[in-house]
Amino acid sequence: MPTEGDVPIPLAEIEAAARGLAGKIVRTPLLEAPRFPGLPDTPIYLKLENLQRTGAFKLRGATHRIAQLSPDEMQRGVVAASAGNHALGVAWAARARGVPVTIVMAKNASPLKVRLTQALGARVVLEGANYDEAHDHSVRLAEKEHLVYIHPYDDPFVIAGQATVGLEILEELPTVRRIVAGVGGGGLLSGIAAAVRGRGSSAELVGVQPNGCDNLRPSLEAGRVVLGPPPATFADGLATREIGDLPLRILRASRVRAVAVDDRTIARAAFLLLEQAKVLAEGAGATPLAGLLEHPELAADGPVVLVVSGGNLDPFLLDRILFIGLAAEGRLLRLRAALRDTPGRLEEFLSVAAREGANVRQIVHSRESPDRPPGEVTIEVELEVRDRDHAARVETSYRALGWPVTALASAPD
User: Could you tell me the pTM of the whole model?
Assistant: First the structure.
């Protein structure tokens, strides 16, 4: 175990990685974000790795690692296991060097990331119910076919590549007080930590994980890698059961802080990034903002940098994220009411919402409700409103006019 302050990735190696990556990856922008609701009025910056060539930071580490291959290894090819973004990074970097590449992904991997990986010329093998099973299969495949295994985070060259994110942050914002990043296996934050501490910065480093794969905190406390339960989160880029051994050594030596957040907060963060900052972030990329939303003290004493690690969001998730975000911001109002089953009665009911400027998002009209007598129907209407005050006015108007409405929770359980 390294002594306090001794980070086992030399700054010289990180700077060499930066020189080697120049022109091969995008130096992504660092932009000041708008003020997010509920957070202190302090400067918050977004490091937009979602704008990387493959849509995520993983291209950095993969490119630097593949640059270390011998001619014989390049001819034999490489294999990697991934939830998606590491796959894209390895496939892109391998194609750029003419290296054959095989990617093993879990059977439930994002269809979008599978298609994008195949489009880069990789052989994709779907194996296992989760990342851990895909990883085990990739290791067996490496042995069977004599391929070089490219680890997504527990590799010093991969970490050095990811560390270039930290160099860029310090070069553009040397006064940064806190850097917040999502943590899966720990490659990104450990790389940033190695770069930041190597450059002598005392900026606080915070790793954020979903509650469903909260293993960094117990690992830091125990001083060893603690295996967590099977991951349960929609933020698939962070869905690992354990931190890598080398990343944990770096994170401990760098005195990082770890917090965990709810998936609903991650969805709300993705919504806020899209609506207010015009940034499309996948779950892993939105997790740092979720950390601030649940722990507002992390936004104090800025400047604060949030690393938006990726933007490869499955379109099927976007609708659910928008719904949860709108509900969390008080922009949806769901009402239930019993109406007489007569012509024009539904129109009268909806006219109240129209007069108040609320728009109908969807409506359910049921005659089969077991708790209603013949001649009555039950309706549930979901209305688009401007904010919580507007929702309260709409509900008050219904009650003032004698409509027996019941407000329902806007977000699903």
Answer: 0.89
